[in-house]
């Protein structure tokens, strides 16, 4: 039996022979042994799924100029589906109070609890309704490079202005792997890299960011390590947003940060804008620090979810594993609102200390 071109003959026994590829699944056939080739990353093996229409493009410099970006909360209906009516109100409040961008489906927006269908739908909905008034930055990052590529292609296809990307968490990789992961998505459009070692378990070191900054699509870094790291970047021409609300005032005015990607701005967007735009204001910063401490008493987004329910702007519905703050902390929030001034907070209803029975916890959604 003649061998096919490019194939050798594999024998099971003398009575049976069949064509066998000389290279199969990445392995070379040398004599009778299989030898693994050296590992290699093939860049841009697939053609990019992208649109070149002008309407679907955003200049990276437009993203670099944003000062207040709100990591927007995702509210829910009693059955756990998105409450788009409440969501639209929240985004409109951000626009009215001067926020320049929103992160859709980030940690605060509970992207980690969404299916990718939900995630891309919410990005598309936000662009469709508000894309002309505020920059929409979709959290399309993942610890899987394959998923990050797919979600980012879809996010830009539905019109998001920029992508937010985290480094691979839990299944951590090397520094070279981090760089390769981010390079796999950077070519698609404006990108913010998010460094939050407290959640990922791995710091993105400056040498990785400096390498990635050679790509013109890198808008900047959301940095949670601290202000010394912020300063290191800003002194080297890398745009930075503080990822820590309690440090953002000093980041902006003492260390050169462009602004903040904020959780607190879900509650007091006007005051956060003032903090970023109107010069050094230690008095206002000190006034807001107790609220920021309250918000992060438990892991985000537990605090902001509890607060927005108490302000009456979202239903008291939680997707598990998140549960509301205990009654003592809910009473503390009522006091904080009165001290800062109800007029500075979102919504129009009186702040309430909700009872435990007022909350709905959803395990399947």
From TrEMBL:
Enzyme Commission number(s): 4.3.3.7
Keywords recorded for this protein, A-Z: Amino-acid biosynthesis, Diaminopimelate biosynthesis, Lyase, Lysine biosynthesis, Schiff base
Classification via CDD domains: DHDPS
Annotated pathway: Amino-acid biosynthesis; L-lysine biosynthesis via DAP pathway; (S)-tetrahydrodipicolinate from L-aspartate: step 3/4
Membrane-spanning residues: none
Catalyzed chemical reaction(s): L-aspartate 4-semialdehyde + pyruvate = (2S,4S)-4-hydroxy-2,3,4,5-tetrahydrodipicolinate + H2O + H(+)
Pfam families per record: DHDPS (PF00701)
Enzyme class name: lyase
Disulfide bond found in the keyword field: no
Top-level taxon of origin: Eukaryota
Protein role: Catalyzes the condensation of (S)-aspartate-beta-semialdehyde [(S)-ASA] and pyruvate to 4-hydroxy-tetrahydrodipicolinate (HTPA).
Family: Belongs to the DapA family.
Protein name, per record: 4-hydroxy-tetrahydrodipicolinate synthase
Organism listed in the record: Camelina sativa
């Amino acid at each position: 039996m003649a061998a096919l071109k490019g194939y050798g003959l594999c024998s099971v026994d003398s009575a049976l022979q069949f064509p066998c590829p000389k290279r199969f699944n990445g392995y070379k056939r040398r004599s009778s042994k299989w030898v693994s080739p050296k590992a290699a990353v093939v860049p841009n093996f697939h053609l990019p799924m992208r649109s070149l229409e002008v309407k679907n493009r955003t200049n990276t410099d437009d993203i670099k100029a944003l000062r207040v970006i709100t990591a927007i909360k995702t509210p829910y209906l009693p059955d756990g589906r998105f409450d788009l009516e409440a969501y639209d109100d929240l985004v409109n409040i951000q626009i009215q109070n001067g926020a320049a961008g929103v992160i859709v489906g980030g940690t605060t927006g509970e992207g980690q609890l969404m299916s990718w269908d939900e995630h891309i739908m919410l990005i598309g909905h936000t662009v469709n309704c508000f894309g002309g008034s505020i920059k929409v930055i979709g959290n399309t990052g993942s610890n899987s490079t394959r998923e990050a590529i797919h979600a980012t292609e879809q996010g830009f296809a539905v019109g998001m202005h920029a992508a937010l990307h985290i480094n691979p968490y839990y299944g951590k990789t090397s520094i070279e792997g981090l760089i390769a992961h981010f390079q796999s998505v950077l070519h698609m459009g404006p990108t913010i890299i998010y460094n939050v070692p407290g959640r990922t378990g791995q710091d993105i070191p400056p040498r990785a960011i400096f390498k990635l900054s050679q790509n013109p699509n890198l808008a900047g870094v959301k940095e949670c390590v601290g202000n010394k790291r912020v300063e290191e970047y800003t002194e080297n021409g890398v745009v930075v947003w503080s990822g820590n609300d309690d440090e953002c005032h000093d980041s902006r005015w003492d260390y050169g940060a462009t602004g903040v990607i904020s959780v607190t701005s879900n509650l007091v967007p006007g005051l956060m804008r003032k903090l970023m735009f109107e010069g050094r204001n230690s008095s206002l910063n000190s006034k807001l620090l107790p609220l920021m401490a309250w918000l992060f008493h438990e892991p985000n987004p537990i605090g902001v979810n509890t607060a927005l329910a108490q302000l009456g702007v979202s239903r008291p519905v939680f997707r598990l594993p998140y549960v509301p703050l205990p009654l003592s902390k809910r009473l503390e929030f009522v006091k904080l609102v009165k001290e800062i001034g109800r007029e500075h907070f979102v919504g129009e209803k009186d702040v309430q200390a909700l009872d435990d029975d007022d909350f709905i916890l959803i395990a399947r959604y």
